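Predict structure. Chain length: 1103.
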Amino acid sequence: MEMEMEVDAPPSLFDPTNDTHREQYRRYRHRRRQSASSNVSPLLQGPVSRFSDASLLYEGNTIQRRPNSALLLEEIKQELETDDVDGMDGNTPLNSAMRRASIDSRASGEFNSSFGPARQTGMYSLQPIKGEEEDLSDEGSTFSLFASLLDSALQGLMSFQDLILQLEKTCRDVSESIRFGSTVRHRVVEDKFMRQKAKFLIDEAASWSLFWYLFGKGVSFEVSPPTSHQQACQFVRTDLMAEACVRIVLWLEGLASEALDLEKKVVRGSHVGSYLPSSGVWHHTQRFLRRKNYDPAIVQHVDFDAPTREEAKLISDDKAIFIIIFMGEQKQDELLLEDVWTLLKAGRLEEACELCSSAGQASATLCPFRGIDIFPSVEAMMRNGKSRTLQAIELEGRVGHQLRLWKWASFCASEKISEQDGGKYETAVYAVQCSNLKHVLPVCTDWESACWAMVKCWLDAQVDLHLSQLQKGGGAISYDRRSNEDEMSGSLSGGSEHMSLPPVSPGSWPYQILDQQPRDMSSLLQKLHSSDMVHEAVSRSCREQHRQIQMRLMLGDVSNLLDLLWSWISPSESDWDDNLRPQGDPEMMRFGAHLVLVLRYIIDVELKEVIREKLETIGDRILHLYVMYLFSQQHEEWVGVYASQLVRHLCVDLFVQMMELRLNSRMSVKHKLFRSAVQYLPFSSEDNSKACFEEIIDRVLSRSRETKLSKNDADMAEHHRLQSLEKAMVIQWLCFTPPSTIKDFQGISVMLLVKALMHSNILFREFALISMWRVPETPIGAHKLLAFLSEPLQQPKDNLLSLNDPDVSDNLHEFEDWHAYYCWDATYRKWLKAESENGVVPPDDLSSEEKDASIAFARQTLSSALALLIREGDPWLSAAQESAYNSTEHVFLELHAVAMLCLPSRECVAPDATHCAALTSALYSSVSEEVVLHRQLTVDVTISSEDSSCIEVILRCLAVEGDGLGFHEANDGGLLATVMADGFKGELNQFQFGVAMEISRIDAWYSDDDHLAGPPATYVVRGLCRRCCIPETILRCMQVAGYLSQAGDSVETSEKLIELVASADYGILHLFSQRQLQEFLSLQRDLMLHQMVLEEEAIALDA
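Prediction complete.
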């Protein structure tokens, strides 16, 4: 069976040679190695979570078919850099190994040495001291463990009831590791910090334990026949307050029991429960009695009081020992009873009875019914099983009669011992059996003990009163209170004629016992906080954070608890500006976040309705703050499991903000954030209350195109180049390979690629419009896009084309057109760069290689341009497409653009109202008045509200047949593209000459009469790009052709360009503006003149 489980385990978990988790264990540029024999978390003893730094090649049980090669190369590079630093940081291999071993020991609680036995022998005297670069504790692993547990619960791998228990166990394990697992000596302040953290985790474990007992522990049992114990259990089952008391008592006893187990584990030698007093252990006398010998002069028992009580003596060999030990008899009794008291607090009644028996003391004081536990809990009933002892006793002497006698006897004993100044633990042992609280609290010096004593005494009093009321009016099991009290009085007085019983209540219970009990849970906790009866340390502990948490859980006041947690961790007003670096206690943030999630999944529906608003509002604030803390600590892989539980708008806004802040981070960091989002959020969702990854990524893409303020307005071209790079970086979120373990992995991969193509084409259009300057610098944004998409598009496109969506194939075709355009553009700028470099060198000093390189770039520029422009039946960036609207519909076209006004020197012009009015008039005048009226053209130019250095241009016109309706055959973007093209080229008639609009963002769409946006009008922006890019491309080619003609090349290429412009088949001539045509003709004239000069020189040379 174990072998089958190992075979079914994922390779990334069971393969000890798998070294792809190295990033998770890398800190301070040193690697920490996990034990090769362990495939589980060292503290959790469970499998590694799915969202930890996973392998780049392994995804669950399969191997990725499309690994992100850039991400893989970055991992390899970082690993090589780490190896270099490990070997060059001045540390010897021995010290480096020792340091890694010490870090491993803190994380797992064990010291796994990296050295063999022979080398360890010589190292026992070494005492490693904490170095400056080492952390006090591995907080990352602690947060990872909690996130892993929560992830398992959210996936349904464990119930939330089990999650609570696992959280408690994890807190205890980590606390124990911090306290006892470290082999490194720390400074005083650091040691104090570690003890504080260990105590916080122990307190947190106690809070989780209480939460489980109150909300996670089920109750189910059947009651029959009617013994007093079963009647008490039935009462607890039906009374909410009594049930709460039972759960609290069990919780506190569980805490004490855990503390005993830890003490037994850590402290060697004698511990509570193993106490065997030296007095009374007389070996010779024991041997004599074991042989069944009878001698009236010899004691028959070996307890402390046997020689005095029986007026007998010991075997002669034991007498000397008895004389020495008798002097310490009273002290030994007190030590014994202290251990008994400790075991009672831990709920270990059976062990306490065994301890009494081993010391020769009767155990009837602790258990009146021969080993039957009478605590009204399910566990006690299960331990008792089908025992008929209590039933037989109570059927013989009335139900609850002997129990009442035992409690009265315990009460009288506690009062008598207290009056005689007996031992405080002996008094407490008797007093706790009868709810005599005033004699119990003096020995309770900590909060848990005092709370246990109060709740247990109150519970016992409630149960006793209930049993008395049942028996008083219960018919066959009723009893006469007066005769019963007389009988109890006679039984208890015995040989104490001078002892008088206290007055009793109607429930046959002393008034002074009932007067000590609280009215409700709130008054009980108030006594803990301010009563004179409790120890000062108890009152002081009530002010501790987890004590306040536990007290509110005991009250069931979840709403107030959430407010309290938020008040502790909420940032101050001065910290709100830096909202992704919260300043609260991270441990309390973690506890609060997990508590909120567990409350949402585990509490009853009725209670959830009462606190719904508070659980949603305050709970989301706590979760939001914890996610921000994880993000600020570079734990991007963990944020998804918590952020996915936020309300929709908070989750979307948070992921958008995190993605924007990590936009320029390392690829591996961005990949962790991407995985965290795509794993824990659905890709798309029909539920409006839940966030989805598609909404997040759409918001990120949209925000990336918003105008960014320019720090330096002197050079607009450079500003646009840098801004285009920031816009292009967003595409990388769409180029990561999603994990193959998520649902519909292939479909999500295709959808991401489709979005990447659509958004890339939008950016390509904008980048083309701002890269009209003839400068050597390449448009880095466009080439960054091409680099990001090169790998995804190298994969087979079958899945992409299988969607049968014309928009997908259209976007893929447009991407290929832009790819060809920017490849040509890069070649042209290489030639410009070569010419600019050659221009600063005297012609005679240029080498032939430099000249040949420039000529080669020029020839390559012309050849690639002709291939781009001359394409039969498939013109570059075709804008001829069928509209979604027919000719009978009344729709409008809108174009919105954000741009800057720039001079020919590339300096920015600060716009004002005068510029806006003049530009509006110039745009109107770019077409005839008849067209304005017929197409209902409107122009609106204003200063941008986001950036005062920009203007916003809004054009709107009526869609007509051939331009917005039907098939757009002109392939030039229609009326809106015609108006905007003159503005981009700086050729508006009634505007300042040479001042052009440098685009930052441009979009076009359909709209109705109410200005409601419809589908995008892509052909408008495509046609605008054709109007701007094609003429500029031809002019650049004429420039290059003129250079080549000077180098002796023929003018054949320039003749092809002239034919291309003049040909009606290509429809290029009308794309030129008047100034561009003049420049074209001027370049052609210069080219022909230079060619004529060359021909004349050649003729003269031949002559």
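Summary: The mean pLDDT is 77.
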